[in-house]
Amino acid sequence: MDRIRIRGGRTLRGTIPVGGAKNASLPLMAAALLTDGPLVLTNAPALDDVRTMARLLEQHGLAVEHDTRTRQISLSGAATSLEAPYDLVRKMRASVLVLGPLLARYGEARVSLPGGCAIGTRPVDLHLRGLEQMGARINLDGGYIGATVSGRLKGARIHFPQVSVGATENLLMAAALAEGTTELLNAAREPEIGDLAACLIAMGARIEGVGTDRLLVHGVDSLHGATHPVIPDRIEAGTYACAAAITGGEVLLEGAKLAHLGACARVLAEAGVELDEVPQGLRVRRVDGLRGVDIMTEPFPGFATDMQAQTMTLMCVAEGASMVTETIFENRFMHVPELNRMGARINVHGSSAIVRGVARLSGAPVMATDLRASFSLVLAGLAAAGDTVVNRVYHLDRGYEGVEAKLAGVGADIERLRD
Ligand code: EPZ
Predict the structure, then answer these.
(1) Which residues pair with 75 in a beta bridge?
(2) How far apart are CA 124 and CA 378, in angstroms?
(3) 191 C-alpha vs ligand 1 centroid, how far in Å?
(4) From the CA of 363, how far away is ligand 1's center (Å)?
(5) Full-prediction pTM beyond 0.90?
(6) Residue nearest atom 35 of ligand 1, based on CA coordinates
(7) pLDDT, tens digit, for every residue of 240-290?
């Protein structure tokens, strides 16, 4: 397994290109099941999760061409298999996003239940309940979700009891091809939902309320191919903003958009990080020392859970104490013991963590359990005295393209140690 070695203490300066969003690309690729296409996605990132989704769609029978040079993914054809197998779904939970499109278009689907993961139990009950409200019959058997509908899915009024990004995406795609109108209430408002809606509209879907928590979808009989640019990755942008901030540097995040950061922009500003939107993207600069800030994760436009670990690392070297409360996932503090091994002072009490800032972290060999936690350790390594070796880099490769090249490009002393 590859590892990443970082020698801390370098100030980052220069330009980091921000790629297409992983969490937008995955539902957008699943949307290709709604049409024979072709659906062409531009600005697509070359990430392991994107490759896993491509493999899943290929085994459904679609032709997938991913040109990493032009950053274009082209998806076309009809599904020949309606089953999403355990082997692929267990690698990536977002595979469950094929359920809505397959059911809406083919009236049938068999998708492995994703199961829990390192950050929480992550059930899919909201996806299933919504599809049932649209007339689907759901049967859980042998670890699989079996879903069928006689005729087409029917429009329904679906009120989510809790905001879910994935359930909103699955039902939005299903509703696009349903008979009649579907109302999605308490829908997620993440920029990735807006991107999926924009792509579906380009494919011929009729959707109102984009950007709000009430989406109205007037089902159509069929959808057609389209070309759609994937939005920039707001979490990648926020992560590199933390990298600039923790090293006291100044970085241009090329292509990033301030509005996509939601409350994260305000938190960074309160912590002493300047963020300026410029025509090329977002300029990030730390002027003085970092200040501790309290953070609570919430659905968009609240503070993103996907930025919690990275921001906590910033707080480790900020002046004063910070309280970090995680409300989305029950087990998303796995980075804490590793940060403490690097000299951080963090105490976890249930779903909150108190972080007391220290003057300096010290490099150490560390191990992470999920994507964002891995990057929080890279950030700690950038600020630490001495060498940090981050193990299990495969987590990073799922969602950050070219980490070493991007960081080395702005002056970090970083290298990948290949096994
Ligand atoms: C998406 O996951 C993202 N993944 C996650 O990104 C992100 O952390 C999460 O949204 C929250 O923003 C993708 O977009 C591919 P949810 P998703 O459904 O859709 C509970 C990353 O690092 N819930 O919004 O799976 C759930 O357990 C990742 O890139 C139910 O109870 O998240 C959680 O507590 C990891 N029942 C909360 O809702 C359901 O049926 C929000 O989950 C569905 C969700």
Answers:
(1) 39, 64
(2) 31
(3) 14
(4) 32
(5) yes
(6) 306
(7) 999 999 999 999 999 999 999 999 999 999 999 999 999 999 999 998 999
